[in-house]
Amino acid sequence: MLIKILGALIIILSLGFLGQKLANILLQQKQALKNAQQGLQALATAIDYSLVPLPQALAEAGNQAGGSVGVCFYQTSKKLTSGLGLTAQEAWQETLLAEKNNLPLNQEDWEILQSCGVGLGLSHREDQLKRLALAKEKLAKRESEAAERSANMGKIYKSMGWGCGLIVALLWF
């Protein structure tokens, strides 16, 4: 009997924590989108006002963004200064591909981030700023959608995890 109770407790806790983990993934996506917006804003500010070299602007944007998104900005900066002869767009694309598994973003989010690299460092300053502002607006929309999804689906995942755990444990007895 004690083994059955222990098994039921393990099932309840496992499924409950699974629901918590799924809800946490939604929160991480929202935070990553917010960090990306902060990084793009910092990059746009550096391009517009500071007039610093692009690798330095990307490094500053990485510091401002923080988290795993900040790593993308920072790694792009490192690739540009490594002497490999990459354009900013190529370095950005390579970095995004390398960091894809470390960020909780879906395909639409990735497409927006990839579009940020188009013309980066090659086009006129105003064009770069327009592209960054457009990407930031799209990310803001995606963040609000992610916040809504997190609020609604997060509760469902948590409740379903604990509920399914209880149902499976009760059926086991």
Description:
The protein has 173 residues and is mostly helical. The protein has 6 helices and no strands. The chain has one domain. Helix content is 84%, strand content 0%. The protein starts with a helix and ends with a helix.
User: Which residue ranges are poorly predicted, with pLDDT under 50 across at least 5 consecutive positions?
Assistant: none
- Average predicted confidence as pLDDT: 87
End-to-end separation: 10 Å
Shape: elongated
Radius of gyration: 21 Å
Tally of individual domains: 1
Our estimate of the beta-strand percent is under 5%
Helix content: over 70%
Number of strands: 0
Q: Secondary-structure element sequence?
A: HHHHHH
| Number of helical regions | 6
Q: Determine the structural class based on helices, strands and strand pairing.
A: mainly alpha
Sheet with the most strands? Answer: none
Quick summary:
The chain has 173 residues and is mainly alpha-helical. The protein has helices at 2-50, 54-65, 67-81, 88-99, 107-116, 125-172. The chain has one domain (2-172).
Attribute tags:
mainly alpha, elongated, 173 residues
Outline the fold blueprint.
Layout: H1 2-50, H2 54-65, H3 67-81, H4 88-99, H5 107-116, H6 125-172
Helix pairs in contact: 1-2, 1-3, 1-6, 2-3, 3-4, 4-5, 5-6
